[in-house]
Amino acid sequence: MKSAAGRSCFRQFLRTEFSEENMMFWLACEELKKETNKTVVEEKVRQIYEDFISILSPKEVRHQRKISAQRALLSRQQCRNF
């Protein structure tokens, strides 16, 4: 996952398995980890939620209990922001 070529190859494989959204979710989370600006972090979290966690998302990641717990946490955080 460290090399662009490796990620590209893995992404191609995920497309064949109809799981590319998992890689996109991981990449978005990795980018989020690098961010230090609170405003940008909040926007990226909102975008990750909308793109990958919301049940309305066309790119919803396949999730297990852990992801469901994260969804609840993000949903609560998002509600507090409004």
Outline the secondary-structure elements.
Elements: H1 4-16, H2 20-34, H3 38-53, H4 65-80
Q: Would you write up a description of this structure?
A:
There is one protein chain. By secondary structure, the chain is mostly helical. The protein has a single domain, classed as Regulator of G-protein Signalling 4, domain 2 (Orthogonal Bundle), CATH 1.10.167.10. The protein has four helices and no strands. It has helices spanning 4-16, 20-34, 38-53, 65-80.
The biggest beta sheet is recorded as: none
User: Uncertain segments of ≥5 residues (pLDDT<50)?
Assistant: none
What is the overall silhouette?
flat
Quote the average pLDDT.
78
Question: What is the CATH top level name?
Answer: Mainly Alpha
Keywords summarizing the entry:
4 helices; 0% strand; mainly alpha; single chain; 82 residues
In short:
This protein is an all-alpha fold and 82 residues long. The chain contains four helices and no strands. Helix 1 packs antiparallel against helix 2, helix 2 packs antiparallel against helix 3 and helix 3 crosses helix 4.
